[in-house]
Amino acid sequence: MGRGRVQLKRIENKISRQVTFSKRRSGLLKKANEISVLCDAEVALIVFSTKGKLFEYSTESSMERILERYERYSYAEKRLSGSGPGQQDNWSLEHPKLVSRIELLQRNIKHYVGEDLDSLSLRELQTLEQQLDAALRRIRTRKNQVMHESIAELRKKEKTLQEQNSLLAKQIKENDKIVMERLHLIQRSSALVLSEPAPGSVPVPSLAAGGPFQVRGPTGEEDGRRGKNTLMPPPPPPPWLVRRMS
């Protein structure tokens, strides 16, 4: 007699159930890999154990891209079928998608910071390492670009400041020259005013004895009365001299 078909039902024994899960999981992952290689198909496989541990498999393209593609196609098919739900149904449909995407993003963030790596296979770890290396290269490239831009901007500012300083120094030198020329002109004008009499002024006569204001007698000789020369009172000083003395 041939072997009869085994009825599929939940394995009650916990140990047997765990052993069966490990064997069937490995076989399922192997079959997923085979179909992706033989048929050149994009395959994404997600398995959660009874303890909530995640096991996944994806082809060369990332799991995120396959899930996004699935969501687009699924949503497009529902729109084309003509049986699209109402607004409330749309929200009900989007909610589990968003929750799944949030969980996926949180798990990826943990992987990127080096946490929760026990569930990753060797291939997934290599893929994660390649992604991190590529991200580091992009970060370093951007950092070097920002540094070069900052250095160029600082050099440009330095050149502008030097030009402004040169211009200010030239202006200060010109202002000093103008001030010195004006001061020299003022000194020359003051010297000329002190050395030359005003136009139309009369020279101050000499008041010494025997000067031009000595009183002489009728014969032209000096008056010898009281044994000395008789002098006439001097004329008042001219107005320009009064102003200058005051």
Task: Give an account of the 3D structure.
- About 10% of the residues have low confidence.
- This protein has a domain of 49 residues: Transcription factor, MADS-box (SRF-like).
- It contains 5 helices and 2 strands; from the N terminus they run H-E-E-H-H-H-H.
- It is mainly alpha-helical.
From the structure above, extract its key features.
2 strands; rod-shaped; two-stranded antiparallel ribbon; 4% strand; SRF-like; 246 residues; mainly alpha; 61% helix
Low-confidence stretches: 206-230
Proportion of strand residues:
under 5%
Q: Give the CATH architecture of one domain.
A: 3-Layer(aba) Sandwich
Oligomer: single chain
Helicity range: 55-70%
Q: How do the SSEs run, as a string of H and E?
A: HEEHHHH
- Quickly give the structural class: mainly alpha
Look at the structure and give the CATH class of one domain. Answer: Alpha Beta
CATH homologous superfamily title of one domain = Transcription factor, MADS-box
Number of helices: 5
Output the strand order for the largest sheet: 1-2
The gyration radius over C-alpha positions equals: 57 Å
What coarse outline follows from CA principal-axis ratios? Answer: rod-shaped
Chain-averaged pLDDT: 77
Number of strands: 2
Largest sheet: 2 strands, antiparallel
